[in-house]
Amino acid sequence: MITSAALCPWPPLLVRELTGADPVLPELRAACAGAVAALLRDRPEVVAVVGPGTGTVPWPADGRLNVAAFGGPRVAAPCPARPGTEGAGRPVLPPALGIGTYLLDQAGYAGERLIWSVSGDEPVAGCRKLGADLAGSDARVALLAIGDGSARRGPRAPGHFDERSHAFDAEVERAVRACDTRALLDLDPGLARELMATGRPAWQVLAGALEGCTGLSVEVLYAGDPFGVAYLVATLRPS
Q1: pTM of the predicted protein model
Q2: Tens digit of pLDDT for each residue in 70-103?
Q3: What is the per-residue DSSP string for the chain?
Q4: Span 2-237 CATH architecture
């Protein structure tokens, strides 16, 4: 069963080793820390971390972030040759999943983890099934969905400006605030790719996990696009 869920983005500015003593966007960092703390409040037996990757595959539970992927000093072993294999030290996760586990580490979580990357090409049905499978576990599972909104919200955005980006992100935020899992499942994978919205697969996993839940309580802790990329931080808790 799902005890609670949270959405967080994965900008490298969340990692202290990359920003130094003066954090960039401390309000975003605080929002993500708050979302993860809320996720752990119900004492889940397992935390499932789901985020973008090159394939829809499970990763080793002891995998961690390698900040060298963002230009920082290496802090973990080289990336395994294939998901599920270990190198000389802890396996290195794809950056988004690495940041997800980093947030759990920062929160002091030392329990069991289930880590899945989800391809940007994964069909909606596949995302939905993965979410349903997580929800169908006998264990008490908390779900951390990692992903950014569109990266084309202005002329300085990574993907430059696309006028469709604001409507796309507004619909995601509306659906999250309203606990509208159907609307999240209706997000167009093709449009999400064009808008560089990496969160689409993870949001649809979350929708599959929460589909049918009633009385969901939602809190949006952050919504903004400081660098032309939409970041949404929220918690969703079944009553």
Answers
A1: 0.91
A2: 766 554 433 333 343 333 467 999 999 999 999 9
A3: -EEEEEEE---GGG-HHHH-SS-SSHHHHHHHHHHHHHHHTT--SEEEEEEEESSSEEE-TT-B--GGGGTS---SPPPPSSTT---SSSPBPPHHHHHHHHHHHHTT--SEEEEEEEETT--HHHHHHHHHHHHT-SS-EEEEEE----S-SSTTSTT---TTHHHHHHHHHHHHHTT-HHHHHT--HHHHHHTT-TTHHHHHHHHHHHTT--S-EEEEEEEE-TTSS-EEEEEEE--
A4: 3-Layer(aba) Sandwich (3.40)
